Amino acid sequence: MSRWKYFLQRLVLTVPILLLAMSIVFLIVRAGPLDPARAIVGMGNPAGYHDVAVDLGIERAVRVDGEVRYVDVPLWQQYVDFMAGLLTLDLGQSWVIYPETSVYEVIALRAPRTLWLGFWSVLIALFVGIPLGFYAGLNPNTWGDYTASFGGIVWRAMPNFWLAVILVAVLSNSQQLFGFSWQQLVVPTNVVTAPNLGFLTDPGMFLSDPGRAFNQLLGATKQILPAAIVLGSSSMGNEMRIGRTAVLETINSNYVETARAKGVSARSIVWKHVFRNALIPLIPIITAEAFLLIGGSVIVEYIFAINGLGQLFFTAATKGDLPLVGSLAFIFILLTLSLNVLQDFLYTIIDPRVGYEEN
Amino acid sequence: MSQQPRRQRTASEPVLSVENLRTEFHTDKEVIRAIDDVSFDVHPGETVGIVGESGSGKSVTARSIMGLVDDPGRLLDGSSIRFRGEELVGKTEDEYRDVRGDGIAMVFQDPLSSLNPVYTVGNQIKEALKLHQGLTGKAATDRAAELLKAVSIPDARRRLTEYPHQFSGGMRQRAVIAMALACDPDLLICDEPTTALDVTIQAQILELLNDIQDAEDLAIVFITHDMGVIAQVADRVNVMYAGEFVEKAPVEELFANPRHPYTQSLLESIPGRGDADERLQSIEGDVPTPHGAATYCRFAPRCPKAFDECDAIHPAHVDVGEEDVEHTAACLLYPDDLPQEEALAIHQERQTEAERTGDGDAQLVDENTPPEEEQ
User: What is the reported pTM?
Assistant: First the structure.
């Protein structure tokens, strides 16, 4: 089987996984103890209850002897409606948090902040963690290695919520602590606030008003950095540790010795022979953590007051906005699946043994 | 034993000349002397075998020659490795790189892992061609295909574009040999190249090496633990034990007339050599780990012929062959035409002489690690 055929097979496999995951979400949302209609209308409003229930597709109005009666829609039919709605990308609307607002609108408001935060935390993990790990692996048992490894463990061990609180406290008092004010540094910003991402929704601004756009970009980056460092810290530590191990394992392998015996330069050994092989065990780590970073960071979003998707999902779940929960879960499933596909794609490019079966 | 006629040693300069090679590994806990005072020459077109049990220092010898001994290992002062008359000991990593591959190439034990899994076989052969012959592009591809054909891989041009995992074990070892040949070396070091292969493939690889040697007048250092393989390939054999050569002889001489008790035991433990109804002989115990220069015979604890003096005197190499055969053994039993006291006196005298001419640090180490601890 060729590598690309294997990749295609993985791609096709995502369809049943998507359906299964959606079915589980349906079960959690609809077969759980929460009555979505009750959560929406609140207690003690029996008249409005049925209207909402009909809107949600839980009940159906039937006319019996000129009188309106409400009957439960059978679960299988609810299931078919639910799946059909999501698969046709009809995500419905939010009821509790943003009443009468379509889910698309809610996500369009919240998602850019989370993506911006996720983007920077993935970037920090990738571009600090992996180079540090590779450095440590290439110079094992030196002071540089000890410093990097120890730092990696400490960084990894610090809990998000603690690090976030400390960072907010330190940055808020930077004038007294370090003699400069973080708030006034480069662009004036607050320590905790949702970044202004106007330039993302309106990229034309870079042409029409570049000064303002770049200022906004700078401000948004500065605002997101502390949160991104907190969020990316544990992934950074992970990737550092695994990168170090992967490099050590590769550099002691027989093919590296063969390459040395062949007279290949140290530089070429690292970049050609070690690097690509050491990336193989890192790929699943990177993609798995990328999902964590992009998909959910309730605590960090909460502490830094970044009203993003993570917080939205959490609030929707606690407030019983079940239609919104279902739609968000669907989006997270799609995100996970695309990251999985990305992972398979990276595997296919980097490792020629992928999809190889001896027969 | 092999039926093919043995190549005669030429009077030419040796291509490789190893003298007093001593390699030590320094760890926090101890110092391990993996190679102790090893000397041998390799002439163009001949195969020198190094044979011994696992842990006797064969592979470290190969790596010392290639300059692949990494920290915490180092070559002691006084070690000398001359290749084409040029001293290799003390070269920097960059200078050594010019020698590796270009002059000396190496074939490793495990063909399954000595090719990089993420690059095509062609890519890895062409890498060597580019480094040592400056070939790139089409010329490199043509030459790489020629090399694969030379090591009897059919359909070479297609095979170049395949990855190592698409090759069988024997083919991978052929590809590794092709890669070594791409460097156009004068000396090929084979570190157990057939150990991981089954017997029929083993025979093919040995034959291939033989053909290549005849075609290119290549000098080969062949390392193995397999006496049967040594009989087939080597012209001269060095028997290694615990970091030292204990017997050196031309291959027929060694098999016909083994003198050192260790060599005798090794030959007795080849299946099928003794009487058919006799149980297979084995050598009890393990190879000891040497910690410094020996002041006694390292094989004595396992030796069936050991006597008291073996624990007190380090045997020197003495001539044990016929008139014109270069055959030496390091054993207190020899020279056997002298009375035992005189023989012992010869060894004793050589030992004192060796101690006087340096090797001071070794004695220091020996005080800390008395011989009793070495078993």
Answer: 0.78
